Amino acid sequence: MNVGGKHLILDAFECDSTLLNNQDYLEQLLTMAAQNAGMEVVYSYFHPFHPQGVTGMIVLATSHLSIHTWPEERYASLDFYTCGEHDPLSQVDVLLKGLQAKRAVVYSVSRGTTSPQLVMSQGMESFGSPKPDERHGGDEAVRGDKWDQIGRQALLRGKHKLLWDEKSAFQHLQMIEAKDVRMYLDGQLQFSSLDEHIYHEALVHPAFTFVPTPSRVLILGGGDGLALREVLKYPSVKHVDLVDLDPAVLQAAKKSKKLAALNDSSLSDSRVAVHPQDAVDFLAANRTLYPLIIVDFPDPTDETTSSLYTTEFYTLLKRCLADDGVFVCQSASLDDTPIVFWSIGKTIESAGFHTLSYHTIVPSFGDWGFHIGAKTALSWEGRQAQIPCRTLPNPLRDLSRFPSTILAKKPLAIVNSKQHTVLHHLFKQENVYW
């Protein structure tokens, strides 16, 4: 019998104290992480302490996953051990982002061997015993995009199927199936089939409450067809223009059986016109007014993507939006880049829009933000999703409540313009991998 095992010890710092005190949320998060890793949950028990704190354990067929929280210190200690073939490392990003941790130290220990090796943090550098300050979260711990790299590498080391692997003129596209289906672009996670519906419901359906019966919709980005899937649920929609820069992504969304099943074959719908071209070029040539525009671009990580979040871009978009229409824009992570989030909103307003801001938690990514823009003032009053949704609250106003720590960053927001394209620099400054 093979007694070898993999043991992760996680110290998570600067977490959301409210989440650390939420017994039900923590149980759901740990259960999801275990199931994501392909492990069988035998039993779970979580116990709240008074006035604060939670301890809990998921008993697995192959061992255990446990947590103990100190909300007053914004700290959580997690222990994840398996003697099976599954790799718990693939779920580190889910756990840390689910706790909204800002810093972490991750130890990985090989078990069942007479020559154990201890590995710590993202660099995976072997060492003997950590220094005392390293046990409590030194600068060597990292997060952000590198967590995506770690998760992808863990998937590729384990049992998996490579559904799509293509280097296009724009990026390296990979779709990997393990216990879920994940798409990576240049090593960065775009979605997990386990929770992508949370993100796409939040992206699409709140905007529809302001224009409940649009006949024509424009989607910029979102070539995977998942936002398109949600749009096509509305019977009033007669035509959708989907614009994505990379034909490889569009091809995968249509030809990959797994992704086509996930997006309900949305790109093959007769109501859809697919445009493999630059969004700026499309808007510049467009002569149609849309009552609803959905902007699902990548984060502003470099100068090229940052240019899609400028005053000039939103001014161009405004020309294509009906007077009584709205648009919605995905606006990055509140956990990692709150100033970038508020800066996107401020830049939208600089183009003459009124805005509403909101957010939701997507376990694979953490707390994620969005902005709705319109030519006239908007209000959340009385807004409820027009079709059944699995994850959105009613009333939708609940999505607009932000933690005080996030609101405190709003005065630091900047306007990103063609003459002053700095959002990608701000993104990198905020998203320092601790």
Automatic annotation (TrEMBL):
EC number in record: 4.1.1.50
Annotated spermidine binding sites: H200, D224
Gene that encodes it: speH
Domain of life of the native organism: Bacteria
Record's protein name: S-adenosylmethionine decarboxylase proenzyme
Cofactor(s), names only, from the UniProt record: pyruvate
Assembly behavior: Heterotetramer of two alpha and two beta chains arranged as a dimer of alpha/beta heterodimers.
UniProt source species: Geobacillus genomosp. 3
Chain ranges of the PABS domain: 145-375
Post-translational modification: Is synthesized initially as an inactive proenzyme. Formation of the active enzyme involves a self-maturation process in which the active site pyruvoyl group is generated from an internal serine residue via an autocatalytic post-translational modification. Two non-identical subunits are generated from the proenzyme in this reaction, and the pyruvate is formed at the N-terminus of the alpha chain, which is derived from the carboxyl end of the proenzyme.
Residues annotated as the enzyme's active site: S63 (schiff-base intermediate with substrate), H68 (proton acceptor), C83 (proton donor), D296 (proton acceptor)
Gene Ontology molecular function terms on file: adenosylmethionine decarboxylase activity; spermidine synthase activity; thermospermine synthase activity
Region (Disordered): 122-142
